[in-house]
Amino acid sequence: MTELLTAAQMRALERAEIESGAVTGLALMERAGQGVVDAIFAQWPELAAPLSADTEEGAAADVAQSRRRAMVLCGPGNNGGDGFVIARMLKARGWAVDTFLYGDPARLPPDARANHDRWAAENPVSLLVAANVQRAPRPDLIVDAVFGIGLTRPVPPEVDKALAAGGDGRAANLPAIRRVAVDCPSGLNLDTGMVQRGGGPVDPDFGRWPATVSMADLTVTFHSPKPGHYLGQGPALCGVLKVVDIGLGGDALERGMIGVPPDADRVRLVEPVHMGRPLPGRIWPGALIAKARHAGHKYDHGHVVVFAGGVGRGGAGRMAARAALRVGAGLVTLVCPPAALQENACRLDAVMLRAVRGPEHLGDVADDRVTGFVIGPGMGVSERTRGFVRSVLARRAGDRDWRDPVVVLDADGLSSFAADPKSLFEWTHARCVLTPHDGEFARLFPDLAPSRRGAMSKIDAVRAAADRAGCVILLKGADTVIARPGGGASLHAAAYDRAAPWLATAGAGDVLAGLIAGLSASGLAGDLFNVVEAAAWLHVEAARSFGPGLIAEDLTEELPKVLRGIGL
Ligand SMILES: NC(=O)C1=CN([C@@H]2O[C@H](COP(=O)(O)OP(=O)(O)OC[C@H]3O[C@@H](n4cnc5c(N)ncnc54)[C@H](O)[C@@H]3O)[C@@H](O)[C@H]2O)[C@@H](O)CC1
Ligand SMILES: Nc1ncnc2c1ncn2[C@@H]1O[C@H](COP(=O)(O)OP(=O)(O)O)[C@@H](O)[C@H]1O
Ligand SMILES: [K+]
């Protein structure tokens, strides 16, 4: 797992390192600039060679001269300071470099000021306004060093215009302009993944490519990725994400992230990576898949009960049930209203089937050996659903909380409590997992929904929700956030080289609910939070493994291949 640092945590780390005397701010800025330059040439090795009329690109440019050219756009803080270091380093490699500054050089913070002055002693610096940028020669490379982690308010319109004025890197018949962002494309908030416009973060429904942020082809960040690189609009705006080491230390923090419950104030990225290196899948998530680790009787691996909807509405429950069985539950029973028994019987073999009339009859079909429930998918919003949810949540193992059956509450199991979420939270307990999508989350936690939570990040919103509900919450999306009471949180991103757009398909969430129950219901299962992380990861792996054309049923059938692929 990789630690994701907020802007405040990154600053604190930098400050501590500087105050300890281990390094100066100026040295860090130099390393940051060097890291960006190295990343540029690693990404585009062709830029290391001078532009030549012999190449297709050179011919298109109709080059009068062979020097590569960069446009470096600098801001009023240390992000701008990085920009001046990059300008100097590119010039030293023979590049023509045009620099632009937003703000007053006299008010730059000391390290940025030093790098500005060193550059400005020999080179002109223009004011960062659209007219100046447009007048400059078309570059091979634009460096966006206007705002980084210090963005505190919406980008001023004149900066917006200047950022957009550098030419369209994708225009036909012209040589490419590569766009590299220092820390982030300016305007992206690295704590929230939102673009700040007038009046606060942009409404996430507004669209994924707001005109006010120029998308980067490459984003280079320092020491560790930040939540905003993975949340919300971040992945769509950053292009390729590279993290460069600037010698800040901090490995010690990451050391304790695999296989242990989350720390209260450190967010981790769910992935089989340990201290920057890939981790064999059989170590993570393999260690959390009980059947792969322990021999035993089917009852050792848990009995999951999945509720299905009424006539014609059983598909969601059936998919969740099959996923629970495939991922390792010892046995799985689907329960449905009597009228739907025949329909379900035609569709099920390994999954067992029982009819149940109402919550008061649940005991007839589910004895106290049931270790996990999935309740909600396809059930309909109703008092009947509420009744089943309450009766399932009331099944406790006395003072042995860790033996309480796991309850995965999804879909209509959540929406049925929209009118009175508190009446649900009176029952939810530490062995519950709520798996809402954004709409269901907004019904249960209206004040924490994107439209109401203001500058709060999705991560902090889910943390607050987990505190309120007293259980684990997984809020779905390409940026899935998992949190538990007390602040522990992780982010599971289906982004960059793990993008899984085919997963946006009806029923994919039902399969996830089944995976969580199937992995957590075993008597030999790991910590619930860790298991939920592993389920989220396997879900996306199955989607990626199947690829284009995926529908929800395929996820479960692809799972054996994924499990084998991680070495089980
Ligand atoms: N913190 C660290 O550990 C390191 C930081 N470095 C660089 O330093 C950057 C952070 O520097 P800063 O903290 O100075 O922050 P920034 O350079 O991101 O921006 C801060 C400045 O922008 C102004 N500002 C913020 N939002 C604005 C808006 N919407 N309109 C107009 N002005 C606005 C602020 O008043 C302040 O002057 C990082 O992104 C990174 O590029 C690197 O040099 C290496 C190490
Ligand atoms: N663009 C996307 N990239 C990756 N995963 C996605 C994307 N869109 C949705 N998902 C995932 O697909 C699942 C959809 O679940 P949900 O919204 O509950 O749908 P349903 O109720 O139809 O099953 C969730 O696990 C979510 O995280
Ligand atoms: K930037």
Q: Tell me the radius of gyration.
A: 27 Å
In the CATH hierarchy, what is the superfamily of the largest domain?
Answer: Ribokinase
Distance linking N and C termini: 20 Å
Unreliable stretches (pLDDT < 50, length at least 5) are: 198-211
Structure, described:
With 568 residues, the protein is of the alpha/beta class. The chain has an eleven-stranded mixed sheet, sandwiched between helices. The protein is elongated and about 85 Å long. Bound molecules: ligand NAX, adenosine-5'-diphosphate (ADP) and potassium ion. Adenosine-5'-diphosphate (ADP) binds at residues 411, 437, 476-478, 480, 494, 500-501, 503-504, 506-510, 512, 539. Ligand NAX is lined by residues 10-11, 14, 28-29, 32, 75-80, 82, 109, 147-156, 182-183, 222, 246.
Blueprint (SSEs and pairs):
Layout: E1 2-4, H1 7-19, H2 25-43, H3 56-61, E2 69-74, H4 78-92, E3 96-101, H5 110-120, E4 125-127, H6 130-135, E5 141-145, H7 157-164, E6 178-182, E7 196-197, E8 200-201, E9 218-222, H8 227-230, H9 234-238, E10 240-244, H10 251-255, E11 267-269, E12 273-274, E13 277-278, H11 290-293, E14 303-307, H12 315-326, E15 331-336, H13 341-345, E16 352-355, H14 362-365, E17 372-375, H15 383-393, E18 406-409, H16 412-415, H17 421-425, E19 432-434, H18 438-444, H19 458-469, E20 472-475, E21 479-483, E22 489-493, H20 508-520, H21 528-546, H22 552-565
Parallel strand pairs: 2-3, 2-5, 3-4, 5-6, 6-9, 9-10, 11-22, 14-15, 14-17, 15-16, 17-18, 18-19, 19-20
Antiparallel strand pairs: 1-11, 7-8, 12-13, 20-21, 21-22
Bound molecules: ligand NAX, adenosine-5'-diphosphate (ADP) and potassium ion.
InterPro entries: Carbohydrate_kinase_pred_CS, CARKD, Nnr, Ribokinase-like, YjeF_N_dom, YjeF_N_dom_sf
Domain YjeF C-terminal: 281-566
Binding site for AMP: 476-480, 509
